[in-house]
């Protein structure tokens, strides 16, 4: 047996195994990067929750509220994606639709497709109304000059430190309030919420979730927020790599707090789009559906 030949074959085998191992190791981060930039950020999950309260009129039993948030229209979220999103929303047959801010990533530079995006938003169907509030991206980049009128032309009522009633038959109603953006707007918490009645079911739309600790002093039943993107990039079993201002304490999902003599629920939506970097990991974009239920106590 040729010893030299055997050693040569062994070296080739070791080198081959080394190359395969090296490629495998390199493929792991490449795969994660591809998933985060090309797959997860294009997904949309639907999260369902029941909201129970004795203040919900029986006429609102099983009414569905659909929330979408943080679309960040621009180069990384196209009109085709928006059209698919609206189609998915309409398939869920919501009674009420709420948008909790950050429609366009850079409002001032989003010109060519702005009108077409508005027509797509107009197709959202909600028999009891469509409601929106300002996010920080809607206030920044020139958005303050256009956003309110733009959303109204798309069929939304834009709530800027405002309270409205959503009415059904027999004049039964729930209230929906909206605060201006906390970072770049002029929110008026006290004057907006101080006249809410304890016996009513009161919803609040506000972009930044962490204001809920101040809201807890008013008779609000349910705060609906966005802004956080769920961290946008999370480490499994650890949490978000980065949290943003006013979405540091409440990052995603449902929270129950002690409100003013009644429970206060907060939901923080992970949003649809991305900002700064077109990447999502362990933070799948979402639509949130809330089914109202009148409870007995």
TrEMBL record:
It comes from the Bacteria. The keyword Nucleus does not apply. Its cofactor is a divalent metal cation. Gene3D superfamilies: 3.60.21.10. Residues 64-230 form the Calcineurin-like phosphoesterase domain. The chain crosses the membrane at residues 18-36. GO terms for cellular component: membrane. GO terms for molecular function: metal ion binding; UDP-2,3-diacylglucosamine hydrolase activity. The keyword Nucleotidyltransferase does not apply. It holds the Pfam family Metallophos. One of its GO terms (biological process) is lipid A biosynthetic process. Keywords: Hydrolase, Membrane, Metal-binding, Transmembrane, Transmembrane helix. PANTHER family: PHOSPHOESTERASE (PTHR31302:SF25), TRANSMEMBRANE PROTEIN WITH METALLOPHOSPHOESTERASE DOMAIN-RELATED (PTHR31302). Belongs to the metallophosphoesterase superfamily. This is Phosphoesterase. It comes from Bacillus cereus HuA3-9.
């Amino acid at each position: 047996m040729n010893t030299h030949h055997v050693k040569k074959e062994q070296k080739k085998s070791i080198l081959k195994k080394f190359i395969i191992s090296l490629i495998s190791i390199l493929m792991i981060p490449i795969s994660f990067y591809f998933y985060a930039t090309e797959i997860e950020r294009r997904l949309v999950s639907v999260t369902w929750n029941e909201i129970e309260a004795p203040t919900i009129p029986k006429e609102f039993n099983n009414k569905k509220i659909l929330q979408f948030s943080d679309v960040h229209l621009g180069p990384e979220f196209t009109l085709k994606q928006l059209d698919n999103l609206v189609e998915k929303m309409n398939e869920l047959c919501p009674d009420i639709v709420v948008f909790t801010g950050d429609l366009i990533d850079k409002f001032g530079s989003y010109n060519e497709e702005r009108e077409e995006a508005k027509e797509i938003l107009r197709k959202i169907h909600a028999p009891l109304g469509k409601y929106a509030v300002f996010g920080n991206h809607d206030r920044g980049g020139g958005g303050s000059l256009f956003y309110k009128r733009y959303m109204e032309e798309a069929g939304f009522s834009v709530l800027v430190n405002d309270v409205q009633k959503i009415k059904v038959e027999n004049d039964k109603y729930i209230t929906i309030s909206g605060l201006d953006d906390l970072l770049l707007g002029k929110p008026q918490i006290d004057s907006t919420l101080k006249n809410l009645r304890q016996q009513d079911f009161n919803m609040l739309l506000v972009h930044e979730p962490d204001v809920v600790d101040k809201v807890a002093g008013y008779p609000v039943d349910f705060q609906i927020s966005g802004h956080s993107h769920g961290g946008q990039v999370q480490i499994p079993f650890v949490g978000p790599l980065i949290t943003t201002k006013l979405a540091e304490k409440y990052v995603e999902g449902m929270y129950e707090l002690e409100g003013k003599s009644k429970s206060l629920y907060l939901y923080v939506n992970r949003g649809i789009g991305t900002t700064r970097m077109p990447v999502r990991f362990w933070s799948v974009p979402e639509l949130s559906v809330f089914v109202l239920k009148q409870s007995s106590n």
